[in-house]
Amino acid sequence: MNTDAKKSYKVVDRGNVQYLTIPAMEEMTGVFHAFTTRKQGLGARNNGINDWHPVAGAFGIKPGRVITVNQAHGENVVTIDTQGLVDGRTEPRTVEADAMITNARGIAIGVETADCVPILLFDPRVPAVAAVHAGWRSTVKKIAQKAVKRMREEFGADPSAMIAAIGPAIGPECYEVDEPVMTSVKDAFSFWKEIAKPKGDDRWNLDLVKASRLELVQIGLAEHNIHSLGMCTSCRKDLFYSFRAEGRTGRMLSVIMLKP
């Protein structure tokens, strides 16, 4: 997977759940995060499976305190707080958005992906966290930057203090887009030549992970604080779901929580 983000991961076994973490964030106090694999993934959507109970158990919280987004492939950022949460709730809940932010402890926020870029953000000083879903449409709408801006506006977060963990996503060697997509990319980013390579016949290989990394640098994150698993979902179908490689398939969860 060709990206300039730092690449590293750790395999964590917690109860009946095995997941991946970014070591740099794993070492931070006050926060849990996880990237699930297809072994603990959502399962095929046509099976109607939506069970993040093992993840909630691994985090030591009730399933009703796991909140995911119903991705709209847009730019909506939702603030999550304890209002409306019911301790007796037995199922995770969803919100319509492509990013969530929170400074509430004991609430796990996450995004479901199967090629798109999942980004987890943590400001240890506030503290506050964010979970971002960045497909190509959300990427060109600068969803990662908008999540950082909202964290700054609502919580007083400092981008220079933030750490970013980028989860499993499709790599540029497997992600081919057409000229209409590239037109949107060119309109959005002055650095578009750094994230795209022409293949001929108006086709391009696009590096969404690198695009997200450069977006985060632009908004003020330090390059050394941006980390990536560095694994392509399409190349690693043994470990991850990939919509591009498999068609209708399951989803992984990328989730983060401030410790209670």
What features would you describe in this structure?
It contains 8 helices and 17 strands. It has a single domain, classed as CNF1/YfiH-like putative cysteine hydrolases, CATH 3.60.140.10. A 7-stranded mixed β-sheet has the order 1-16-12-10-11-8-6. Strands 2-3-4-17-9-5-7 form a 7-stranded mixed β-sheet. It is α/β, with parallel strands linked by helices and 260 residues long.
Shape: globular
Distance between the termini: 35 Å
Question: What CATH architecture would you give?
Answer: 4-Layer Sandwich
Report strand %. 25-35%
How large, in whole angstroms, is the Cα Rg?
A: 17 Å
Class by helix and strand content?
Answer: alpha/beta
How many domain modules? 1
- Counting DSSP E segments of at least 2 residues, the number of strands comes to 17
- The CATH topology corresponds to CNF1/YfiH-like putative cysteine hydrolases
- CATH C-level category: Alpha Beta
Poorly predicted sequence stretches spanning 5 or more consecutive residues: none
CATH superfamily: CNF1/YfiH-like putative cysteine hydrolases
Portion of residues in helices?
Answer: 10-25%
Q: Largest sheet at a glance?
A: 7 strands, mixed
Query: Assembly type of the shown chains?
Result: single chain
N-to-C SSE string, H for helix and E for strand: EEEHEHEEEEEEEHHEEHHEEHEHE
Arithmetic mean of pLDDT: 90
Strand ordering within the main sheet: 1-16-12-10-11-8-6
Q: Give me the number of helical elements.
A: 8
